[in-house]
Amino acid sequence: MQRVVVVTGGFGTLGRAVGRVFSENGWKVALLDKAPAPDDANAAQLNAAWWRGGVELADLDAAQSAMAAAVEQLGKLDAVVNVAGGFRWETLADGSLDTWDLMYQMNVRTAATASKAALDYLADGARGGRIVNIGAGAALKAGMGMGAYTASKSGVMRLTEALAEELKDRSITVNAILPGIIDTPQNRKDMPDADFSRWVRPEEIANVILFLASDAASGVTGALIPVTGRN
Ligand SMILES: NC(=O)c1ccc[n+]([C@@H]2O[C@H](COP(=O)([O-])OP(=O)(O)OC[C@H]3O[C@@H](n4cnc5c(N)ncnc54)[C@H](OP(=O)(O)O)[C@@H]3O)[C@@H](O)[C@H]2O)c1
């Protein structure tokens, strides 16, 4: 029977790559995002069986109703990949304290709400369900201007560890990827002089997530896995 994954942030660069890699490997894919669905959205272009835009995942009610709709459409839930998130670079002196709240909402709270919403449905028992979060390699030691972002990604990493312990008896694994700089159009625009070939490609991250979602990874939980290309 085809396995079902919900990918949050599914219209973004990494989210799309995750949807594509899971689809190519026989999964049924649902995408959720705050961004509106692309104008030209169709199943082939999005590599998804179902999708919904305009979902504010920091809001628990919105997350729960979107997750319920995904399960109703696709029949069950085997894995959730929490890709939704965002980045701001800002010093404390020149920045706004609101950025700290924004980063918390975008990165920690979206992962917590989507995971909580998924707990009612995730497969447990012999096969076990899967949650994969996206932390950041940069959160292992913050650089200048990176306080709000890395604090929030550290929160994602601690959420991953705590939830992994909480869900051990349900055989649901919870792990996080810690990407380095990803080769995205936005990063190419922001850092035009960088050597893009050293950055990790979205598909390389998606392949590790696919492994974590597979039966072969049943023994891995609470892991924070750097996937950094040649950074
Ligand atoms: N790019 C990098 O170099 C890098 C490095 C390390 C970690 N990461 C992490 O990897 C993930 C994906 O990055 P990406 O480059 O693919 O980003 P992206 O293209 O901006 O995609 C992220 C998606 O998440 C959505 N989103 C943000 N806040 C949301 C919310 N509250 N509710 C629902 N959806 C929300 C965004 O919608 P809107 O566009 O409407 O906000 C966007 O569609 C993020 O968690 C990011 O922090 C990225």
Topology:
Blueprint: E1 4-8, H1 13-24, E2 28-32, H2 43-46, E3 50-52, H3 60-74, E4 79-82, H4 98-118, E5 130-134, H5 147-166, E6 173-179, H6 185-190, H7 202-213, E7 224-227
Parallel strand pairs: 1-2, 1-4, 2-3, 4-5, 5-6, 6-7
NADP nicotinamide-adenine-dinucleotide phosphate binds next to helix 1 and helix 4.
What is the second-level CATH architecture?
A: 3-Layer(aba) Sandwich
CATH class: Alpha Beta
- Cα shape: globular
| Through-space gap between termini | 39 Å
CATH topology: Rossmann fold
Mean pLDDT: 96
Helix content: 25-40%
**Percent of residues in β-strands:** 5-15%
Low-confidence stretches: none
Number of strands: 7
Could you name the CATH homologous superfamily?
NAD(P)-binding Rossmann-like Domain
Sequence of secondary-structure elements? EHEHEHEHEHEHHE
Strand order of the largest sheet: 3-2-1-4-5-6-7
Radius of gyration (CA) equals 17 Å
Cofactors and ligands: NADP nicotinamide-adenine-dinucleotide phosphate
How many independent structural domains?
Answer: 1
Query: Number of DSSP helices?
Result: 7
Could you characterize the architecture of this molecule?
With 231 residues, this protein is α/β, with parallel strands linked by helices. It has one domain (4-227): NAD(P)-binding Rossmann-like Domain (Rossmann fold, 3-Layer(aba) Sandwich). Helices cover 39% and strands 14% of the residues. It is built from 7 helices and 7 strands. It has helices spanning 13-24, 43-46, 60-74, 98-118, 147-166, 185-190, 202-213; strands spanning 4-8, 28-32, 50-52, 79-82, 130-134, 173-179, 224-227. A 7-stranded parallel beta sheet has the order 3-2-1-4-5-6-7, with helices on both faces. Helix 3 packs parallel to helix 4 (98-118). The longest helix is centred in the middle third of the chain and has 21 residues, at 98-118. The protein is globular, with a radius of gyration of 17 Å. The structure holds NADP nicotinamide-adenine-dinucleotide phosphate (NAP). NADP nicotinamide-adenine-dinucleotide phosphate binds next to helix 1 and helix 4. It holds the Pfam family adh_short. One of its GO terms (biological process) is fatty acid elongation. InterPro entries: KR_dom, NAD(P)-bd_dom_sf, Sc_DH/Rdtase_CS, SDR_fam.
